[in-house]
Design a protein that fits this description.
Number of strands of chain C: 28
Radius of gyration of chain A: 15 Å
Largest sheet of chain A: 5 strands, mixed
Distance between the termini of chain C: 67 Å
Strand content of chain C: 15-25%
Structural class of chain A: alpha+beta
Chains: A alpha+beta, B alpha+beta, C alpha+beta
Largest sheet of chain C: 7 strands, mixed
Oligomer: heterotrimer
Helix content of chain A: 25-40%
CATH superfamily of the largest domain in chain A: Beta-grasp domain
Number of domains of chain A: 2
CATH topology of the largest domain in chain C: Aldehyde Oxidoreductase, domain 4
Radius of gyration of chain C: 26 Å
CATH architecture of the largest domain in chain A: Roll
């Protein structure tokens, strides 16, 4: 067990966990941030995607020790009272069905829009390539990102 | 997760000196974690002591001089694919880095990890082979440099000694006049593990092949240079019959295996076809 | 304002987009333990002894074996053959033998490795051929779960009179549902309170039905609640009964809540998949190329236990002749036992298998007869007033020709079909375009809906809101939204006035399972009728006139509750009089109605790597009234993507009856870069017995993609392809064979 501090969704926190703990488990079990989902545990489905110091990562593949002192953004950190433009776009374009891949998709979309304002469909497809969805057939999600505007 | 964490320890080495003492104590280095964490999750990682090397400055970053480009072992796939000088001088490395997993993996996985893990399906080695990279290994004893072609020894086996870390990869930008060819055949377009892949370079002067280098991945215990094919093709003018002969020579030394992702036969035939595709493109 | 026909926004969308929706693994109860299932390492044998090796303190663990079951050791579904836990006989790899619980979930994995089963192995059966040989017999008297025989006309003499006979055999592989949220439940079970389950599931009342005999408790002592569910596709139809029983057994012994969540590897290796199939079709044509006789032998692999195989077989059998007419039909079908984990429900439920066969066969016949595949199909299409393979007279209008025309025009089919032949000549990339035409019957088969006798209810709250009470679950397909739209229209109030109650067997009536494309069409209609029933109560109480405003309705509800009491409307299913079904002959009106569709795939095959990609896809269908265009399109696009996976990528690799590639990195489902733009067009012919005029549509998109894609590949490569998934390795082998 090791005491470690990190910033999650703007809040500085201290957790006491095994340093090899997956960031995913720390978020879900220690911090009760259950919005981030586990779909495969091997970095394949992207349901556990979060932003780590401004970069998209699979939280199932990140050990806690490596995020000590770093900044994490999860799906819970996106909206304030109202939904963000990206979340609204998912609503209008049918980007969420069962909702289990949605938090990860939102983070991957967030990473794309943060990096570049005007995205081609191909860029969006590539940017979401690590996020599997079994419900939508992807087009509604791609459209959600494309129609979001310049701010996520 | 299937691992029982109390069976493992995990520490951080902030400097090379700290890393060396970790190595001395028998601990294992851990970089981006994109391979090790998958094993941990599946309960397939042997319980042991591990140490994080991500904070070690000497292993980070891309440095360039006029004569060479040096990629620190901790350079991520994302850094490789987005680097201007690599894009213009070593496009195969960018193309192969771009096809590793997807963005989230590329943001974490490192060139050092990809090489040290020594999987035959690793995406970067074929490119490093044709660019004739050099690999720099560091230990308490100092820095030693090897031709990359000598690094991989067999399935999951390499030259790295127990007290060593991969320090960096050195590349010489001397391929401006070459054709650069890369193709990976995986099971899908994203998040794909390769079934076979080819990296190839050629310099052609008045239709005659002056220089040619070909490497394949996922078809043998390590990525392989196809030296016999290269020798055969060097100095030749391409014709359908030379291409056919080159394909034949390729199949002589190649004995890919059946596994859960593909068949040996498929790997062999597709490797031959990709060689043909490359040769048709430079002729 | 009417809501039906509009793209109302997803009811529960906000909580899903905020990450606030609570899926089962997001819920934690105080004092909760974690459970795991220890499974058989081999396919068939006799369990002799369980050994607990040293390495953990076993006193800390709750252990449950077959001997701890308080009631009956079978999973109640159709037959009683599948045990919850192996007593002695092991019938498939990964069969549950022992359950363990501990408050620390990580130590459970260590404990798992310290369990040793002593098993005497028995010879297993892994293939359909071995099952047919009956050597050994592993189930019943002949390895056969169920068989059907359909005979109409005289096939034998038609074959004698035929101008030409054509025959082919078609095979489909297993397919994993691969919902992104694995199976999981939490149970609280004890003698005082009975059993309560929260879980990821499609059918709370199926779980309820299964737990009654397992615990020998009266039905009112069992309560099943659906948590937010991260996809099902059939994979959470019958399986949740198993995992729920396991968690409840652990909780019963532990006297504490127990959670079981499968990880991906366990979910893939141990739970159900789509039935693999083999279909032999013999057809006879007269000299005008009219189909005069159809002889089909359809076989599916059911795995080790009966589960739903008989019903999957039924749907496959009844769709086997496709949208074609023949006056002489003979169909023999059977579901066989093998020593693999039981195959189960997966979107389409038998129809994708048999429709793949008939649509591939019709393409083959067109080529053999040197006819245009479209003209040839049209010549043989079923028409109004003719009889389908299942013996059903087509009484309703059908727009099959319009559906096909629309697909051809939108895809520019004929022009591309010609153009590709030219451009393919000098390219290693061969482009093709292919068509598949099919229909899908919605709702339970035959008298199934009558037996279900589903009930839906609506209830007013003291605040004047309307709650919908059904056991039909929201699993992403839009139940909450479409029910709210239909109720809003039936009551002439606003979409926002409607709330959908979480399915909980303690509070909602049994409106049947969330399967078979029945939710919108069958249960939607019940929701409408229940709404009308509630409205009528207000009118009868003279609190509301025939014509009213939303405000008047709300105040009438409030007044009713204050002055009279509970305000509830309900409705129970009664079969429309036009549906007549003969269970003995297995003939008649198999389905109340059918949706009709024509799908076109445009593909590219790289002849150097044998990889095929779908470049574009057109899905045109007549589905009755479209309740919510955005959600309906989402259903079709998502289904087509699964169909693309079924056709080209998704292969279950079996080793000794066990899935060897039970990881998302090895079982290949399509990513954003593998699924093309999918164009969706609806034609509407409202069905008066369906909710809002709808027909079921959810399963339709699994039927068409695989034959359309393989037909496109055949067009490009000029070869005959008869099996899916058509992976690059298989395509290479086929092309090599032809080149020999």
């Amino acid at each position: 067990m090791k005491k470690m501090s990190l910033t999650v969704n703007g809040k500085k926190l201290t957790v006491s966990c095994h340093p090899f703990s997956r960031l995913l488990d720390v978020l879900r079990e220690e911090l009760q941030l259950t919005g981030t989902k586990e779909g495969c545990g091997e970095g394949e489905c992207g349901a556990c995607s979060v932003m780590l110091d401004g970069k998209l990562v699979n939280s199932c593949l990140v050990p806690l020790l490596q995020v000590e002192g770093k900044k994490i953004l999860t799906v819970e950190g996106l909206a304030n009272k109202s939904l963000t433009p990206l979340q609204n776009s998912f609503m209008k374009c049918g980007g969420a069905q069962c909702g289990i891949c949605t938090p990860g998709m939102l983070m991957a979309g967030y990473a794309l829009i943060k990096k570049k304002k005007k995205l081609s469909k191909q860029e969006i497809r590539e940017g979401l390539g690590g996020n599997l969805c079994r419900c939508t057939g992807y087009s509604p999600i791609i459209k959600s990102v494309q129609n979001c505007g310049t701010k996520p | 997760m299937r691992a029982y964490l109390p069976d493992y320890s995990f520490h951080r080495a902030k400097t090379l000196t700290e890393a060396f003492s970790q190595l001395e104590a028998g601990a294992k280095p851990f970089a981006g974690g994109t391979d090790i964490m998958v094993l941990l999750d599946a309960g397939a990682l042997p319980p042991d002591n591990y140490f994080d090397i991500l904070a070690i400055k000497e292993l980070q970053g891309i440095r360039s001089t006029k004569k060479a480009l040096s990629l620190g072992a901790l350079t991520t796939y994302s850094e490789i694919r987005n680097h201007k000088l690599i894009q213009s001088n070593f496009p195969i490395l960018c193309a192969s880095a771009r096809e590793v997993g997807a963005i989230a993996i590329q943001n974490r996985g490192t060139i050092g990890g990809n090489i040290a893990n020594s999987s035959p399906a690793a995406d970067l080695p074929p490119g490093l082979l044709v660019y004739e990279a050099q690999i720099n290994l560091i230990s308490k004893r100092g820095l030693r440099t090897l031709d990359y072609t000598k690094f991989h020894l067999g399935y999951k086996k390499n030259e790295l000694q127990k007290d060593e870390l991969i320090h960096s990869i050195t590349l010489k930008p001397e391929f401006q006049k070459h054709h650069h060819f890369w193709r990976k055949v995986g099971s899908r377009r994203s998040q794909a593990i390769s079934k076979t892949m080819i990296a190839a370079l050629a310099k052609v002067n008045r239709k005659r092949i002056e220089d040619i280098r070909i490497a394949l991945g996922s078809v043998a215990p390590t990525a392989v240079r196809c030296l016999e094919v290269e020798t055969f093709l060097k100095g030749k003018i391409l014709s359908p019959s030379t291409i056919l002969e080159a394909k034949k020579i390729l199949s002589r030394d190649l004995h890919p295996i059946d596994d859960i992702r593909s068949t040996g036969k498929y790997r062999l035939i597709v490797s031959q076809n990709m060689l043909e595709e490359f040769l048709c493109g430079i002729g | 304002m009417t809501w039906v026909g509009k793209s109302a926004l997803r009811k529960e969308g906000d909580s899903k987009l905020r990450g606030q929706a609570k899926y089962i693994d997001d819920i934690s109860l105080s004092g909760m333990m974690h459970g795991i299932t220890v499974r058989s390492p081999i396919a068939r044998g006799l369990l002799k002894k369980i050994e607990y090796l040293p390495g953990v303190n076993w006193d800390e663990f709750i252990t449950v074996t077959a001997k701890d079951i308080p009631g009956n050791n079978y999973v109640a579904l159709i037959k009683k053959d599948q045990p919850y836990l192996v007593d002695e006989k092991i019938n498939h790899p990964e069969e549950p033998i022992l359950l363990l619980a501990h408050s620390n979930k990580h130590i459970l994995e260590k404990a798992r490795s310290l369990i040793k089963f002593h098993i005497e192995s028995l010879p297993p059966v892994f293939t359909l051929e071995e099952a047919i040989k009956q050597d050994p017999i592993i189930w019943g008297t002949n390895n056969t779960f169920k068989s059907y025989a359909i005979d109409r006309g005289d096939v034998e003499s038609a074959f004698k009179d035929a101008h030409i006979l054509l025959e082919g055999t078609y095979e489909t592989g297993a397919q994993e549902q691969l919902y992104i949220e694995p199976n999981g439940v939490i149970a609280i079970a004890n003698e005082k309170e009975g059993v309560t389950i929260w879980g990821s599931m499609q059918c709370p009342y199926y779980v309820h039905k299964a737990l009654v005999p397992l615990f020998n408790l009266p039905p009112e002592k069992i309560r099943v609640v659906q948590a937010e569910t991260g996809g099902g596709f059939g994979g959470k139809e019958e399986y949740p009964s198993v995992i729920s029983g396991h968690a409840a057994l652990l909780s019963w012994k532990a006297k504490r809540p127990v959670k079981i969540i499968y990880d991906r590897m366990e979910d893939m290796v141990a739970t159900t998949k789509r039935h693999p199939s083999k279909t032999r079709i013999k057809t006879a044509f007269d000299k005008n190329h009219k189909l005069i006789a159809l002889d089909i032998d359809f076989t599916i692999d059911g795995g080790a236990y009966a589960t739903l195989s008989s019903v999957v077989l039924s749907r496959g059998t009844l769709h086997a002749s496709g949208p074609y007419f023949s006056s002489n039909i003979k169909i023999r079908s059977r579901a066989l036992a093998t020593n693999t984990p039981p195959h189960g429900a997966f979107r389409g439920f038998g129809a994708p298998q048999s429709l793949f066969a008939i649509e591939k066969h019709m393409e083959f016949c067109a080529r053999e007869l040197k006819l245009d595949p479209v003209k040839f199909r049209k010549l043989n299409f079923i028409k109004h007033g003719e009889i389908l393979g299942c013996g059903q007279l087509v009484k309703e209008k059908i727009k099959l020709n319009s559906v096909v025309e629309k697909a051809l025009i939108e895809s520019d089919f004929h022009k591309k079909r010609k153009a590709f032949v030219k451009t393919n000549k000098n390219s290693p990339i061969k482009k093709g375009i292919g068509l598949a035409v099919f229909m899908h019957g919605a709702g339970f088969t035959g008298s199934g809906e009558t037996f279900l006798a589903s009930i839906a209810a609506v209830k007013a709250t003291p605040e004047g809101k309307i709650e919908i009470l059904t056991s039909n679950t929201e699993i992403g397909q839009g139940t909450n939204t479409i029910f709210s739209q239909m109720a809003a229209d039936a009551l002439n109030i606003d979409f926002s006035d409607i709330e959908v109650v979480q399915p909980d067997t303690a509070h909602v009536p049994n409106s049947g399972p969330t399967v078979a494309s029945r939710t919108c069409m069958i249960v939607g209609k019940l929701v409408e009728q229940a709404s009308k029933d509630l409205k009528q109560k207000l009118i009868s109480a003279q609190l509301l006139k025939e014509k009213y405003t939303r405000k008047e309705f709300i105040s009438a509800c409030k007044k009713y509750i204050k002055e009279i009491g509970e305000l509830k409307g309900s409705s129970q299913y009664k079969a429309p009089s036009h549906i007549v079904w003969d269970e003995q002959k297995y003939q008649g009106d198999a389905y109340g109605t059918y949706a009709w569709a024509a799908y076109v795939a445009e593909t590219s095959t790289d002849t150097r790597t044998f990889e095929t990609t779908v470049d574009k896809f057109w899905a045109v269908q007549e589905v009755g009234k479209v309740i919510n265009p955005l959600l309906a399109k989402g259903q079709i696009i998502g289904g087509v993507a699964q169909g693309i996976g079924y056709a080209l990528y998704e292969e279950v690799i079996w080793k000794e009856g066990r899935m060897a590639n039970n990881k998302m990195s090895n079982y290949i489902m399509p990513t954003t870069l593998d699924v093309p733009e999918i164009e969706v067009h609806f034609l509407e012919l409202p069905y008066s017995y369906g909710g809002g005029g709808s027909k079921g549509l959810g399963e339709l998109p699994l039927d068409g993609p695989s034959p359309a894609i393989l037909n496109a590949m055949e067009h490009a490569l000029k070869i005959t392809l008869r099996q899916i998934p058509m992976t690059p390795e298989k395509l290479m082998a086929q092309m090599e064979e032809i080149n020999k």
